Structures are given as structure tokens and as C-alpha cells.
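From: lab user (bench 3)
To: helpdesk
Subject: output format question, protein + tryptophan

Hello, I'm new to running complex predictions and I'm not sure whether the block I got back is the full result or only part of it. Here's what I submitted:
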Amino acid sequence: MKKTILSGVKPSGQAHLGNYFGAMKQFVDLQDHYTGYFMIADLHALNTVQDAKEMAENTLNLAIDYLAIGLDPQKSVIFKQSDVPAHTELTWILNTIVTMPYLSRAHAFKDAEAKNKEVNVGTFDYPILMAADILLYDTDLVPVGKDQKQHVEIARDIAEKFNRIYGQNGDTFKLPQELIKEETQTTPGIDGQKMSKSYKNYIPLFAEDDEIQKLVMSIVTDSSGGLPVNVYAIHQLFRSEDELKKIYAEHEGKYKVLKELLAEDIKAFIRPLRERRKAIAADKKAVLRILKEGGERARAQADMRLAVAKKNVGLTIEE
Ligand code: ADP
Ligand code: TRP
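Helpdesk reply: Thanks, we reran it on our side. This is the complete output you should expect:
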């Protein structure tokens, strides 16, 4: 029996190099060896995207992105979170066993609270919805970037707690593990902070050449050390350490030249992906069909696990 992997990306903007190398590339690399569920986390994105047209566009775009990087609907289930009502239903059940102080310790909530005095309930409850996403599919592994490690730990904690409270008929949920690739766990953005849609410091995964050029030239360089660390960190995604050592020694201190070399490497990498994406985007109906079929397959699994959970908490009356 193949093990199961599940992961998701929020349709809250354009996919970027950090998303790809931190998470999405692993989805593709792993899909031959695992049963894969790859989700568009639209319910999670509602916390930040509050414009219907933008949400629908982002969601379709992310579905196209998934296909363009090589996710294969014959091998994996590609679906939209909101197409599977079991996610919100299980979220409620899990809400009732998790305490407020426990959730208040989540990094994402603390960060949101530090920036914004009035955090919405959806942001506070975000890790529980994510736990439901993961637990409904009997997930073994969750490929993500480092920033999501705590969320997978929370999902594991919640599964353990549920199994403990409602364990009269054995375990309801499998305990998931995060799968984080050391080398690409945190890609910096052009300002040196973590690359993120929400910081607007990202290089889009399907950017056009002139956009790549402009963004790379604006990467913040720290002139104190001789090595432009942010340029180098992004360059590591495209070349081996040995190659980079030579290049950076040869052009020591010449930040403009090094940035130009990086821009060329990114362009060469993105070009075929972008072409592939254009071809897929030309057939919107086919993409929508893939999402619809993915939703049906996801629902079959999720409904089964939800039914067990409902029975074990006593929401089902035996005849
Ligand atoms: P963002 O932070 O840009 O909104 P998401 O939260 O949708 O991105 O993240 C989708 C996936 O990409 C997650 O697994 C996340 O850990 C990963 N990821 C996001 N940004 C980075 C980054 N800068 N480096 C590595 N992985 C990242
Ligand atoms: N919270 C994740 C992120 O911001 C996206 C996500 C939602 C997810 N549900 C998930 C990732 C389930 C892995 C598994 O990147």
C-alpha cells in the first residue's frame, strides 16, 4: 500500500519561487511514489482575499500552476478545498476539543496579532482547518516549507487528543508528519525576508523575462561582507554549491554582474514552465473538469473519514 501525502497552497496571489522550491516541487517529485492529494486552500485564502473575482481568478490560476509544474491528475488528486464540505464540518468538531490558550501560541496568530489589533476568527482558527485538511485523508506526510512546520505539529497534536478522548473504538486519525526539504525550507525574497505573497517581495514562478530582470536587479545587497547573501541564497536554487563558489569568487564584489548571471539562470529555468503554463491555460474547460473530478475523488475519501469521526463522537445514532 502506498503512503499518502497531502499538501496545499493558498490562492492568495501568484505562486512564487519560494512556494515552488519549498513545497510544490516536492509534490511533483513525490507523486509517483505516494497517493497524493494536492489542494487549493481557498477557504484559508478567504482570510486575506475578500474580493470574489480575485478569489476565483487566483484559484483557477493556481490549478493551472499545479498542472504546469507537472502534477498529473491521472496520478494525484488535485482539488479545491471548498469543494469538500467535510473540511469545514470536521473543523467544527475539532474546534470543540482545542483550547483558546493552545491556539493562541501559534506563530501565525501571534504575528497577525502583533500587526493587526483585530484578528479575525478565521485567522485564529486557521490551524484547525488545516488539521482537518490533513486528517481527513489519513495523511502520512505533509510536504511544506519550514513556516508550516508548526501547523503540521498542531494537526498531529489534535489527532492525538481526539484519539485519546474518543478512543473507545480505536484511533480515528492517523498521525501526520511534516516533510521539509532542508536546502529549500526558506527562500528569501528580494528584500531578504522570507519570500511571501503577503510581503510582496517575491519572484513569480511564471514571471516574464523583463519582470525577472527587474526584480533580480532590485534584490537587496548587504555590502558589508563581500558576498551578496540574498543573491547567493536565491542562486542556490539553480546551481550547485561548487559552481556557485567559482562564479562568486571570479566576480567577487561585482554585485551587478552576479545579479545578471542570476537573472539569466532564473529566466532559463522559468521559460519552459511559462510556455507549458500558457498551453494549459488555453483550455480552461479542461482545467475545470480536472478540479471537478478531483473534488469528487477527494470527497469520497474525506466523507469516509468524517463518518468515522462523527460516529466516534456520538453524532450518529445506531439503529
Ligand atoms: P505565502 O507565504 O507566499 O503566502 P503559502 O502560505 O501559500 O505562501 O505557502 C505555500 C507553500 O509554500 C507552503 O508549504 C509554504 O511553507 C511554502 N513556502 C512559502 N514561502 C516559502 C519560502 N519563502 N521558502 C520556502 N517555502 C515557502
Ligand atoms: N497553511 C498552508 C500555507 O499557508 C496552506 C495549507 C492549507 C496546507 N491546508 C494545508 C498545507 C494542508 C499543507 C496541508 O502554506
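A quick orientation on your result: The chain has a mean pLDDT of 96. Let us know if anything else is unclear.
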